[in-house]
């Protein structure tokens, strides 16, 4: 059987020695994004065609209809990560390009980042660390995260995992989802409510939804007016879920308690403009980037590749027999 050509577009996958070693054990021909490039659509086309890739391992790169049309050798996309809004699923189906994707493999990594933002903000850790660096000794311990009212928007793998972490803290957990998640919520001590009730009541609002026409800018000027002046808004999902400028302005003006963002309208994002804003917390899309999560996402993609190889080998044996 001829070696399958695999193009690894994701830079973090390409730079992981463990994942590269696991790929090598499959005896495939690998072309990796070793320079850590963030591919545009045009650059991705050139990268895939250069190796005549039959399989593409895609992270956040734009796998569009145009990419498919110009890269006819690609038969399978193995998704490195859980978000699939960068893939044109309809075009993939029309073109016969298969998708290997496992949902939820990075949920604990993202959930922990939300907790880190919550503890850093409410216990005044972030502000205290900055003051200490400036030689200021200010004992303001903030308030405990325990017993907060937390609103979770989107109750899928990550939202439900976050609820499981919050439950032992005694938080009042409100969830909002397009689907009826009443039973799943009740098992974790949470209550499903309307979006409006969640906005009015929550002291922490955290978003865990995909980017769709329904969710883009689902938190903006109108929702800010419905929220508490002490609320912390946390976005670790996709950069266009919240109106970034509106929420930053609200945090800077003291209209809300704070804004934590791990995702941005465009990436990479220059956060230096907010260095003087003590209640705006920005991190460079590290939510699903823990060592454990990188390995889990990568191994899930590799398993889809291995399954494809096994099926292809079986089909070839059947033809020859």
Written description of the protein model:
The model has no long low-confidence stretch (mean pLDDT 95). The longest helix is centred in the C-terminal third of the chain and has 30 residues, at 291-320. It is built from 13 helices and twelve strands. The protein is of the alpha/beta class and 321 residues long. The protein has two domains: 5-105 and 291-320, NAD(P)-binding Rossmann-like Domain (Rossmann fold, 3-Layer(aba) Sandwich); 107-282, Rossmann fold, CATH 3.40.50.720. Strands 8-7-6-9-10-11-12 form a seven-stranded parallel β-sheet, sandwiched between helices. Strands 2-1-3-4-5 form a five-stranded parallel β-sheet. The chain has helices at 11-14, 17-24, 41-50, 65-70, 89-95, 107-122, 125-133, 157-166, 182-187, 195-201, 221-226, 244-252, 291-320; strands at residues 5-8, 29-32, 55-58, 76-79, 98-100, 149-153, 172-176, 190-192, 204-207, 232-235, 258-261, 280-282.
CATH topology of the largest domain: Rossmann fold
CATH class of the largest domain: Alpha Beta
CATH superfamily of the largest domain: NAD(P)-binding Rossmann-like Domain
Strand content: 5-15%
Catalogue the unreliable spans: none
Secondary-structure content class: alpha/beta
Specify the CATH architecture of the largest domain.
3-Layer(aba) Sandwich
Biggest sheet overview: 7 strands, parallel
Which key phrases capture this entry?
single chain; 321 residues; alpha/beta; Rossmann fold; five-stranded parallel beta sheet; 13 helices; elongated
């Amino acid at each position: 059987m001829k070696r399958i050509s695999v193009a690894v577009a994701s830079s973090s996958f390409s730079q992981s020695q463990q994942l590269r070693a696991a790929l090598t054990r499959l005896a495939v021909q690998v072309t990796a994004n070793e320079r850590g490039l963030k591919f545009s659509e045009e650059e991705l086309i050139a990268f895939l065609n250069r190796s005549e890739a039959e399989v593409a391992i895609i992270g956040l790169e734009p796998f569009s209809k145009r990419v498919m049309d110009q890269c006819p050798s690609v038969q399978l996309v193995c998704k490195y990560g859980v978000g699939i809004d960068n893939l044109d699923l309809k075009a993939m189906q029309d073109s016969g390009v298969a998708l290997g994707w496992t949902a939820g493999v990075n949920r604990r990594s993202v959930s922990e980042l939300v907790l880190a933002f919550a503890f850093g903000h409410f216990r005044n850790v972030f502000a205290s660390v900055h003051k200490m660096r400036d030689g200021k000794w200010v004992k303001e311990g903030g308030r405990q995260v325990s017993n907060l009212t937390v609103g979770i928007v989107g109750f899928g793998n990550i939202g439900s995992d976050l609820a499981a972490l919050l439950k032992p803290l005694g938080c009042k957990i409100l969830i909002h989802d397009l689907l009826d998640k009443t039973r799943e919520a009740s098992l974790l001590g949470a209550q499903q409510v309307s979006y409006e009730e969640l906005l009015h009541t929550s002291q922490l609002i955290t978003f865990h939804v995909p980017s769709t026409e329904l969710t883009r800018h689902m938190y903006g000027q109108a929702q800010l007016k419905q929220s508490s002046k002490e609320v912390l808004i946390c976005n670790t999902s996709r950069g266009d879920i919240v109106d970034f400028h509106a929420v930053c302005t609200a945090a800077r003006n003291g209209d809300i308690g704070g804004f934590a963002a791990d995702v941005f309208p465009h990436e990479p994002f220059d956060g230096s403009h907010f260095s003087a804003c003590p209640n705006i917390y920005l991190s460079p899309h590290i939510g699903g980037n823990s060592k454990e999560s990188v390995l889990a996402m990568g191994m899930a993609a590799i398993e889809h590749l291995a399954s494809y190889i096994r099926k292809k080998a079986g089909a070839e044996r059947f033809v020859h027999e």
